Amino acid sequence: MKLTNPARGSLLGIEHLDAAEILKILKFARRMNPEKPRPILKGRRVFLLFYEPSTRTRSSFEIAAKSLGAHTVLIQAAGSSIEKGESLLDTGYTLRAVGAEVIVIRHPNAGAPHVMAQHIDVPVVNAGDGLHEHPSQALLDAYTIWRTKKNFKGLQVAIIGDIFHSRVARSACHLLTKLGAKVLLCGPPELVPEVATTLTPGLRITRHIEEALRGADVIMLLRVQRERLAGLKINLPEYIARYQMTMSRLRAARKDAIVMHPGPIIRGLELTSEVADCPQSQILHEVKSGVPTRMAILARALGKLR
Amino acid sequence: MTPRTTTSLLIKGGYLIDPAARVDAPMDVLLRDGRVADVAPPHRIKGADETFDARGLIVAPGFIDLHVHLREPGQTHKETIITGTTAAASGGFTSVCTMPNTVPVVDSAEWVEWLRRPERGAVVNVFPIAAATHNSKGKSLSDFRALQRAGALAVTDDGRPILEDGIMREALVLGGELNFPVVQHAEDTRMTEGCSMHAGALSYRLGLRGMTAAAEASIVERDVLLAMQIPNARLHVAHVSTADALKGVRRGKRAKARVTCEVTPHHFTLTDEDIRDYDSNFKMNPPLRSASDLEAILVALADGTVDAIATDHAPHAAHEKQVEFERAAFGITGLETALALAITRLHREKRIPLARVVELFTAGPARCFDLRGRGSLGRGFYADVTLFDPGKKWTFEAAKSVSKSKNTPFDGSQLTGKVVATIVGGRVVYPA
Fold first, then answer.
1. Fewer C-beta neighbours within 10 Å, C or N terminus of chain B?
2. Is B168:B133 a contact under the CB 8 Å cutoff?
3. Secondary structure element (H or E) that encloses residue B197, with its range
């Protein structure tokens, strides 16, 4: 039976969140410290339903839930009844019947969390749905930026790489523009098509990494898949020559610019090892930010965000 | 349901709109023995056995739907001939053309004959469209002569395009010799793999792969060129959805090629922006397109480029639709909402004359597939009549639909225009 509204506390994407709500989540995250567990969700049952592989997202949601005193259950597609052909909704009904109070779902099809939220009376948290959104990643990136830059308004952000295939990029574009940042997308037309600027107002495209980096406060790098470049007939060495983030290119940005990457990073492809390991790189801080951010998301899912 | 048979039935007090006969006036219509016996100004016709009070109603030739999936044989979990034709009757359709993409595919005379037998329980006239190629695989033509003789009105591989140039050419040549239309589902499937909606800003936003307008238009352009070259070829473009494809159709018509086309109600009502919450009740093929495509469709409906409204009624069971958007079956139902959407959107909103709307349901489709004796109410024509109230406001509720499936984007829609009665062969089949 179709519900008229998804369950309260669901986080399906950044697109329909307003700036105030985003800041509320970030402020709550700041009060969370995984080293000092607070039993805000003591005894509550958080189910992680992962149809796709994950290292960061899964483990940080798990630690986040446990740091709040919740019980966690992990269901991965492989090794579950999903392999026997159980449908998305039947899986949802089943988990609810087992006792799930929140379902955190990562799925290869865009909109899977939305379909689940329309039918199952449990808050659904989107941990990545196909090419569509990755809201917790955007929020933890925002948290990282917020802690270093303090302010979003007027911030110059460059996003470089395979934007077309990136749910991280879509969520980030929604979030950053909502908070007043200026976002410049950079890459070749096959990976950064013109239509990408239609996502939200205020997005621009440049094909030249130098232009993207000039005056940038934040540089967000995206993974680029070798197989995809090959499939699109993009010459790999040429791509690297034009779009790889290097220390000398980094110098074109502001001195205090930060470099971010949602991971996993492929050293030597979208960035050099020096960039990955340099002092301006926030890559591991992002991973760390993932835990308090996801603590806030889970608390919100169960109505505990104050 | 017991059909009420009468020897003569007088439809009295109604307003007749019969575009093929150029009638747009208060007229009474006398039906006898399954045919139209007389059409005359009010109060002239006397002495009928029964009378139908049509005061306040529009009386029209029975509507014809050129594109319906009745799902028999083999897919009765979605719809049956009985449930599908019952839905047709409640939507005012007295004749439906049923598509061959069933299990098995209707590519033989035997299956065409099977569909036409009275044992199927059809409540309205069912005219099969047979497969253009064996099993609709697109590799070798089916036996057009045998299919035509068995009663098929046209051929198609609907669900899929007839993709290869050589095969389409052969089909149009043979079809031309037999005066047999070839119906094309225009989609270059080499360009649309993995796609589940229209390619545009929305598909990018939703993270879904999109079918470009070019994937439809390029096939239409090729087909029209062929139709222009091949003598007597008859090309009917199914469910046109893009401005660019309409350009191709216009080109063919201007060159006097025998090109016709149909448009669905959802394509003149909705755009890709209407897709909400990844609800697959908004997923069909061809998909909901852009606002400019919809505008072009409205212009084409008004100016005669579009010959017919056809629903592409495509029922699917709940378990086939209530899944991830990308995995959901393509298609929505449409028989019960077609007239109301046409009146609400085309007539009341876009001021297209009611006579033109009626033409799109009657004379237009009859002409596309040579449905002789139908699409008009002249003396001797079949007694297929649709009576509707053009001003009646109602709310369509999917749960109350008489189709076996409820996959529609119009659940809860407030509409204007409702069928009051449907008469097939002189018998009132709706209300039952």
1. N
2. no
3. strand B197-198
Classify burial at A163, counting beta carbons within 10 Å of its beta carbon; exposed 0-12, middle 13-18, buried 19 or more. Answer: buried
* Phi–psi pair at B415, nearest 5 degrees: -125, 165
Residue B110's Cβ-count burial label (10 Å; 0-12, 13-18, 19+) is exposed
d(CA A24, CA A21): 5
CA separation for the pair A241, A244 (Å, rounded): 6
For the segment(s) A19-133+290-301, the CATH number from 2.60.120.280, 3.40.50.720, 2.60.40.10, 3.40.50.1370 is 3.40.50.1370
In this structure, the number of other CB atoms found within 10 A of the CB of residue A176 comes to 26
Q: How far apart (Å, rounded) are the C-alpha atoms in residues A7 and A14?
A: 16
Q: Which of B85, B159, B162 is nearest to B127 (CA)?
A: B85
Which residue in chain B has the smallest CA separation from A195? B201
**Type of residue at B339:** L
Residues B106 and B219 in one domain: yes
Residues in chain A: 306
Q: B327 contacts in A (CB within 8 Å)?
A: 109
How many Cα atoms occupy the beta-carbon half-sphere of B86 within 13 Å?
A: 16
A115 with B278: Cβ contact below 8 A: yes
Q: What is the DSSP letter of B169?
A: H
pLDDT digits (tens, 9 = 90+) for A202-239: 899 999 999 999 999 999 999 998 888 888 999 999 99
Q: What is the pLDDT of residues B166-211, one digit of tens each?
A: 999 999 999 999 999 999 999 999 999 999 999 999 999 999 999 9
In sequence order, what are the residues at sequence separation of 6 or more whose Cβ sits closer than 8 angstroms to the Cβ of residue B180?
A: B144, B148, B154, B155, B174, B234
Say how far apart CA A285 and CA A143 lie, in whole Å.
10
The full length of chain B comes to 432
Sheet holding B8-12, edge to edge: B35-40, B28-32, B8-12, B50-53
Q: Select from A4, A245, A286 the least CA-distant residue to B412.
A: A4
Tokens of A269: 């492809």
Catalytic residues of B: 312
With respect to residue B356, please indicate whether it lies within any of the assigned structural domains: yes
Answer yes or no: do B260 and B355 share one domain.
Answer: yes
Is the torsion defined by CA of B96, B102, B108, B113 positive or negative?
negative
The answer to whether A110 and B273 are in contact (CB under 8 A) is no
Amino acid at B366: A
Helix (H) or strand (E) holding B300: helix B291-303
Q: How far is A130 from chain B (nearest CA, A)?
A: 7
B398: amino acid identity, one letter = A
* Same domain, yes or no: B111 and B202: yes
Q: Is the distance from CB of B26 to CB of B369 less than 8 angstroms?
A: no
Instruction: List Cβ neighbours of A231 (8 Å cut-off, separation of 6 or more).
Output: none
Mutate which of B198, B282, B324, B325 to disrupt the A interface (most A C-beta within 10 Å)?
B324
Interatomic CA distance for residues B266 and B93, integer angstroms = 17
Q: Which of residues 185-204 of A touch B (CB under 8 A)?
A: 193, 195-196, 198-199
**Residues whose CB is less than 8 angstroms from the CB of residue A147 and which lie 6 or more positions away in sequence, other chains included:** A30, A285, A289
Neighbours of A273 (CB within 10 A): 10
Domain count, chain B: 2
Residue B2 has pLDDT above 50, yes or no: no
Contact indicator for B334, B90 with CB cutoff of 8 Å: no
Cβ-based contacts of B206 with chain A (< 8 Å): 110-111, 132
Q: What is the DSSP string of B249-295?
A: HHHHHHTT-EEEEEE-TGGGT--GGG--TT-GGG--SSPP--HHHHH
Cβ-count burial of B38 within 10 angstroms (0-12 exposed, 13-18 middle, 19+ buried)?
middle
**CATH architecture assignment, domain A136-286:** 3-Layer(aba) Sandwich (3.40)
